TrEMBL record:
Name of the protein described by the UniProt record: DNA damage-binding protein 2
Any one GO molecular-function label of the UniProt entry: damaged DNA binding
Stretches with biased composition (Basic and acidic residues): 1-11
Primary location class: nucleus
One BP term from GO: DNA repair
Gene: DDB2
Cited Pfam families: WD40
Pathway(s) the chain acts in: Protein modification; protein ubiquitination
InterPro entries: DDB2 (IPR033312), WD40/YVTN_repeat-like_dom_sf (IPR015943), WD40_repeat_CS (IPR019775), WD40_repeat_dom_sf (IPR036322), WD40_rpt (IPR001680)
Length: 457
């Protein structure tokens, strides 16, 4: 008989007390060290020195990741409702924010970026406009030199930018040059939809509906013009007392129009019933001038951003009821690209850049210029992103949620705008990822562009 093995004695586990890691420190502890690291010379090594300093603030850590596979399985079995599955996917996205890093920067413009549009069918392609009227069309999926369309310089600021949904090799622009027009990637003007003919009047915003085949644009004195795709003017009315800062068509009911203005109102219109300036459905009063009004991807909510310290969420079912109010510092400054809160294209999340204000009620000393993520239902802060290599003031633009009409299986990219830089923010992979899983994402800030990849969900 084979001899029996003596049972091994179990060792008592040793308790080791480790010092507090950098990753668990609060941003206030990290800030002095971040500033030291940013003083190092230029070059790629800078990002490795401060890469670990990306901060989802310690007090805002999200819960441990949930199992998407399990949530999908339960939904298929009928034991989990769709909202529960959607919440699980949203939580997975929030967990992924901890891995976001700045990867690279570039400076294509001599003035700040003022407008940005993602290509509707190619997630790696976007167009960016500058205060000098320059337009950059970039496909990040190839190494070819991006298309650069030179503007007129001073007075040519691009205020609105949308790809043509009927021909994605073209895009619409509104500008301080006094025109709303359709252009191609070579810079040729294909059609002028509206022209003021004078430098005293210019266009501040635009939106396009592919279903109704209309273009809507607003100007600096309160006028809103509706045109069809052939350039024929349907009506031209003064809908606000002052500049129209934003126009938005509802993505589900494109006859539903929201207009925002510095006259401290956001108005809701039915394009089928517009007869004059008093024919609005609702007028939503604000305490300060309003920068933007964005419909949610499902069209059921409206997100507004004022020029001081308030974000509001209105429900489409009850426009006249008090909205959800989110106090948030993002005050307006003449030489800063306006900060506009925006929706995540898939989840019920709000993303907005923070501009700390000493007069803001909850302002703290040495408050960071973070990118803030809020829950669209509760208004609760879910996460804050920060990197000392890009400590400027951020305006955020989220990337597209579709790829040739199909939902992507990737976390979604951000654009961040501030001065003349374009900055790319992305999840940072720690292991090898097949090239088929790579998808670039971009953001814009003072004059740089960053490259990176995202993880599949």
């Amino acid at each position: 008989m084979a001899p029996r093995k003596r049972p091994e004695t179990q060792k008592t586990p040793e308790v080791v007390v480790r010092p507090k890691s950098k990753r668990n420190r609060s941003p206030r502890e990290l800030e002095p060290e971040a500033k030291k690291l940013c003083l190092k010379g230029p070059g790629p090594s800078r990002r490795f020195d401060s890469g670990c300093l990306w901060a989802g603030l310690a007090s805002l850590r999200v819960p441990p990741p949930c199992s998407i596979i399990r949530a999908l399985h339960q939904h298929k079995l009928g034991t989990a409702a769709w909202p529960s599955l959607q919440q699980g996917l949203q939580q997975s996205f929030l967990n992924s924010l901890a891995s976001y890093r700045i990867f690279q920067k570039a400076a294509p413009f001599d003035r700040r970026a003022t407008s940005l549009a993602w290509h509707p069918t190619h997630p790696s392609t976007l167009a960016v406009g500058s205060k000098g009227g320059d337009i950059l069309v970039w496909n990040f999926g190839i190494k070819d030199k991006p298309t650069f369309i030179k503007g007129i310089g001073a007075g040519g600021s691009i205020t609105g930018l949308k790809f043509n949904p009927l021909n994605t090799n073209q895009f619409f622009t509104s500008s301080m040059e006094g025109t709303t027009r359709l252009q191609d990637f070579k810079g040729n003007t294909l059609r002028v939809f509206a022209s003021s003919g004078t430098c005293n009047f210019w266009f501040c915003s635009l939106d396009v509906s592919v279903k109704s085949r209309v273009v809507v644009t607003g100007d600096n004195v309160g006028n809103v013009i509706l045109l069809n795709m052939d350039g024929r003017e349907l009506w031209n009315l003064r809908m606000h007392k002052k500049k129209v800062t934003h126009v938005a068509l509802n993505p589900c009911c494109d006859w539903f129009l929201a207009t925002a203005s510095v006259d401290q109102t956001v108005k809701i219109w039915d394009l089928r019933q517009v007869r004059g300036k008093s024919s609005f459905l609702y007028s939503l009063l604000h305490r300060h001038p309003v920068n933007a009004a964005h419909f949610s991807p499902d069209g059921a909510q409206l997100l507004t951003t004022d020029q001081k310290s308030e974000i509001r969420v209105y429900s489409a079912s009850q426009w006249d009821c008090p909205p959800s109010l989110i106090p948030h510092p993002h005050r307006h400054f003449q030489h800063l690209t306006p900060i506009k809160a925006t929706w995540h294209p898939r989840y019920n999340l709000i993303v907005v850049g923070r501009y700390p204000d000493p007069n803001f009620k909850s302002c703290t000393s040495h408050e960071l210029r973070t990118i803030d993520v809020f829950d669209g239902s509760s208004g609760k802060m879910m996460y804050q992103l920060y990197d000392p290599e890009s400590s400027g003031i951020m305006s955020v633009r989220l990337g597209p949620s579709n790829n040739n009409g199909r939902k992507q299986g990737f976390t979604l990219p951000y654009w961040i705008k501030n001065d003349q830089k374009l900055i790319l923010m992305c999840p940072s992979p720690s292991t090898f990822i097949p090239s088929s899983c790579l998808s670039p994402c971009l953001c814009s800030s003072m004059s740089s562009i960053l490259w990176g990849t995202h993880w599949p969900l």
